[in-house]
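re: ur question from earlier - yeah i can do the single chain one, its not a big deal. heres the input i used so u can compare w yours
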Amino acid sequence: MDQRLLKYNGRFSSAEKTLNDKENHHHCTTRFIELANELKNGGYDRKLVSAALMSASGIYATYMAAGNSGALEPSGVDKVAALYRKNLEHIQDRKKEEVLAQQKATPDQPE
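and the output i got, formated as tokens:
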């Protein structure tokens, strides 16, 4: 088993727990992207892969909130949708920061 996926058992400081959580989050996110790219490279359409990844995420979010035999009430759907929106906004902010940093690092070339 990948050591990064092992749960800490309370032996770390809160700063280390946060760092470990971030590392684990990054690792899991990277694995999902790798799988999505694998499917795309295997001939599946990117839109289909994206839709399937979104469906899988929604199914898992429902499982996390309601268990295997439950379903979300409309208020639960609203809460999950708000979390998705917040996460997507965060991702877009980071992407914009990356683009600006790249633009600063690579000044326009004179023509």
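The chain has two domains: 1-70, 72-111. not sure if urs matches, ping me
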